[in-house]
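seq:
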Amino acid sequence: MYLLSSLILCNIPAVEAIVQSLNLTWWYKKDQEVAAFVATCSLHNLLNASLLSESGPPLLDFEDLTVILSTLLPVVCVSNDNKQQSDFPVGLKTYNEVQHCFLTVGQVYPEDIFAFLLHKCRLKEDPLTFGALSVLKHLLPRLSESWHAKRPLLVEAVKSLLDERDLAVCKALSELIVVMASHCYLVGPVGELFVEYLVRHCAVTDLNGSDTESSKDFIKSTGSFNPFMYKKSEVKIGGVSPTELRDTCEKGLLLITVTIPEMEHVLWPFLLKMIIPRVYTGAVATVCRCISELCRHKNTQSDIIVSDFKARADLPIPEDLFARLVVLLHNPLAREQLVTHILAVLNQLASLFPKNMILFWQDEIPKMKAYVSDPEDLKQDPLYQETWDDMVVNFVAESLDVIQDPDWAISLGNSFAKQYELYSSEDEHSALLHRCLGILLQRVHDRSYVHAKIDLMYTQANIALPVNRLGLAKAMGLVAASHLDTVLDKLKDILDNVGDSFFKRILSFFSDSAKMEESDDIHAALALMYGYAAKYAPSTVIEARIDALVGTNMLSRLLNVRHPTAKQAVITAIDLLGQAVIGAAESGTSFPLKKRDVLLDYILTLMGRDDEDGISDSNLDLLNTQCLALSACTTLVSVEPKLTIETRNHVLKATLGFFGLPDDPPDVINGLIQNLTTLLCAILVTSGEDGRSRAEQLLHILRQIDPYVSSSVEYQRKRGCLAAYEMLQKFRTICVSGYCALGCQGSCTHNKRIDRVMNNNFSNLPSAFISPSRDALCLGERIMVYLSRCADTNPEVRKISVQILDLVFSISLSLPRSANSSIDLDIELCYGALSALEDVVAILRRDASLDPSEVFNRVVSSVCILFTKDELVAALYSSSSAICDKVRQSAEGAIQAVVEFITKRGRELNDADIARTTQSLLSATNHVVEKYLRQETLNAISALAENTTSRIVFDEVLAAAEKDIATKDVSRLRGGWPVQDVFHAFSQHTVLSHSFLEHIISILNDRPIFQGDSVKGENSNNVGESSVEDNVLHAAMIALTAFFRGGARVGKKSVEQTYGAVFATLVLHLGICHSLSNSGQQEPLRALLVAFNAFCECVGDLEMGKILARDREQNEEETWIGLIGDLAWCISIKRPKEVPIISLILCKSLDQPSRYSREAAAAALSEFVRFSESFGPLLEQLVEGLTRHVSDDSPNVRRLCLRGLVQMPPVLVIQYTIQILSVIVALLDDPDESVQLTAVSCLQKVLGSASTEAVEPILFNLSVRLRNLQVCMNAKIRANAFAAFGAISTYGFGPQHDSFREQVLAAFPRLVLHLHDDDLGVRRACRNTFKRIAPLMELDSIVALANTHRFSSDHRGDYEDFLRDIAKLFTQRMSSRIDTYMASLIQAFEAPWPVIQANAIYLCSSIIALSSVQHISTLYLSQVFGMLIGKINRSPDAIVRATGSLALGLLLKSTNSFWKSTRLDPPDSHLVGRETESSRR
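struct:
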């Protein structure tokens, strides 16, 4: 301190430099608050040392301090901002130190600093002004004595700042005003001015804190307000928000009201003026609180309140105060407990109003205060606002009723009319204002006054705001209660003014949407006003008005709206019309609502979504619209006339989809679903006229709800079940317990009146029309829908579903049965079951955690007893949808119930019931995806087959398979083919396995005809029937395959037991399928081969499987016949004991009409007879069958039967030789070459062991037939014919020697010609035969020729040498037959084989050339020569032409020819020479 004093004394400019060096603002700019605080403390100490020295005068003059004070003022702003934040306690300390600095200077220079601060205020530079005001606020209480004479100057300075817009300055100024009030600065008009300043800023909101664009931008971007953000100052002063300013002013105003008695004269009754102005609306709560405090002091001096009020002419009249305060009651949750304070002020100012109000208000106002006392509790009621508005309106109405003063009422009406100026068009207070004015006009009898005021209401109303639109409509309705015609005239005028709205709306599509929205608002407002006018109007006069409104289509002009709120308004209006009709009926004036169905259609249209018009409803808006629409529909269906079926269906179609809405938002959705359920119940009640029609209505609606009852979404199932339960309860109420249209139950006057009407209407009808029958409820179908829900995953759904079942059976036992139904119920047993069901319901109500499976078992047991036989059948018919339930537990429950029904009561089902039940279960199998559920469904089908007639179940399953095969590709079905799973289930069932296999085999054997299979003795052209048979057999074949593959041990055992029948069936169909394969139908053969392979795998016959794989799908006829033979051979080796059984079956199959079945049977039997030694008596039956069918229409059957006869063991062949040979002789002339080949082949085999006695009688016939076969085009037949001819030659030495030798000699030239046949087999057969018949020729030279090289060689030259030897033999040793042979050889020139032609040409020419008999040359040379020339010229075969040329040369070289006398044409000679030359090359 002494150091500083010495420093100052020594050099004052140096002190200023030190102070400036402190530069506090620099520290704040650098965010160095601690350093700033230290600097400020140092400055404070410096000022104390220099100014408050005890040893002498101040060391510094005030002029020397101005720089310091100017530096400190901005620091006040910064420190003041920082001190308000709890995070900066250092800022508060700095602020205090700065104020201490100013106080130190003020104590020494009070007048100078006062002038300094006022000067800074007058500069109106925000940081400096704010700092100066803050310092003044701080110094005024401390320097009040020194500044007492300066009071006018301070008041004027503050008045000059009242228009300052900066929030920080306003806050500082408000705080200064409060300080000034505490020191009696506020007196007279100046005091009122400052009080009004505080009130004005008590009304400030967050939206009007600053008018500068920069401040607005900053607020938008940061959320805070900084008034000095963009000022040209070195320091950025901290901002003040409007909320802070408002709080400061509110606290200040309350402070001066409560703590400063001297201010009472300023505040009262001046504050009453502050209630009315629009700009002070936000301050009403604080003003009312202050007025309450002032009046509380005058509570015993009501006369003083009245006298003070009357003493000032500038105060508002009581009617204005009442109107203003009542309208401000609109929001019960307004800030600062506005409603409570207003009610308190009204109660305390009651003396200003007519005397009758005082007592009424003292009773009513506390009730209203109690209603709004707990805001949190109030928020729990979604309708609190509507309730509160009704309370306020009733408060006004009852106040007017208490006063009973028309003049005061009119004055109050004028005050209400003036209130419109105090609220913006968007302010929701206008809605309450409309209603208050409306309730007042209801009690005014001056029609012109009423008309003027409703004109004002409509003019002032902002109908674009739904709340205000509704308020206006309710106000019009209130007025209509006393002035209906006046209101309707006004509405008609409005409607006429917008009469061209439809045209305007069309134009709006081509302009902007604003016009369309404006039109919507007008139409919506008109609709609501009409609706509320009807609601509030006297019921005795509304019928004609409603008829005019609806009947003349006036209302339709209000329906062209698209905006969601406008739609809601129109829907509400229609609802109000319906409510008016219902209200009139309750009052005794009932009448039908004209065009009710048209109004319903309007509602359903309005609740839809209209995206195409450019106005897309938000989800919440749409839900609210739909909720209102459902309520309106409920109202309309409840009025006369009754709904038609078409209208009912239209309503249901448009509304039932709401059950599927998402469960969000829950409050709106729950209300909507409840409204929907109420609508359905209303339709049930009002659309039927008797019990039967109501039962039909109930069933129709419940069936429409079923998709939601069985939905995969939990909340949808719950909604559906709750709706069904409520509808059933309603049905029981109206059809069992009696019904009253007004909602009464039991006996009431309404019921008596309705009973009389019904008795008059239905006296001539049967009782079934009046009361529904049990059968009308379709219990079987209904119970299956809800029974599966009893196993639902949701406990609430389970509980409701059990209650539904209990309710349904309770109703059913109370209803009569129809006359044509058989009563098959034990009533006592049924009531016991119903009692058990009710016990389950009671248990679930007490304890929902009970084991669901136990509950379900008890429910199913009761239901099984309560069902009649017809209901049981219906339940089984409809079980498919329950089994396919989207909830697994419910599906399991449905299957469990079906199995129990079948097990306990399956014997009651007839054939048709079994068939339809099977179809239902199969349908479920097709739709069930989960493997476990499908298996359970298969078990149910097996249970049905086991407990009923299995044959019918099997047939239905195969019929389903047949249908699938015809319409689907069963091999590519996702998840597998369900019917195949049924086949597997049957094959694995211990009881059903054997019977199912036998059933399949019987079907395959009974229907062996596929499309394209020929029938013996018939020609069927019914392609459709053949196609159906194809599908049936294909289905049976697939079933058989599934049985083999899926039967496991049980199935294998059944197959082993019926091995022979299965194999025989497969073999028979193998031929049929191969025939179809030849015609292009491959699928049957594939299916059969798959089944055959599966059969082999099932019984373990691997070798047979290999045989099938080897010849798989080979279409050649011999191949499949050989395949059957191989299979038969394999069976004979592996399972010899099965051969007799299979053979017997196949032998009987030879008589089947199917050609290919006979062929397959013959093929198998022809192999089985190889092992027939042990057949015993069966052998005779087989031989007889084979012999009988050698005359079959099928060539394959003929040849296979013959082959079978020949393939018997040799011992047995010898036994039946004569019979076999007779068959062979007959078949040698068969028109079919394959049969001929078989016959001639079998002949050789039989001849190997046949006795002479058996052959000699037919030797001639054999030789003739064999000679005929030797010219067959089939090389094998020729070869076998020649070989057989040689074979029978061994039998030519007996009694038939001569005749047989003649046959040999006749056949000898042909035999010689075919020794060089093109076919090697024919050559060898001919050579062997030549050797065997040579002895019969009785010529040694022939035997010698057979042993030569020429005879055995295949070379052409050797053969020609052999032919020359034969020619010599013919000419020398057989001259007697030369002519016969020549004729035969010349005939062979035209043989179908070129080589035979060549052989004949060469042999014939050789005979002529080598013959020494003149007549041979004479007879044949010319003929042969000419034929040779022709062959050479015209034959297409080179061998013929070459051999002809060679033969021609032989003839020309012959010594005894007369070629010299024959003149040859040169060109021909040239040609012959050329061809011969080319041939030799």
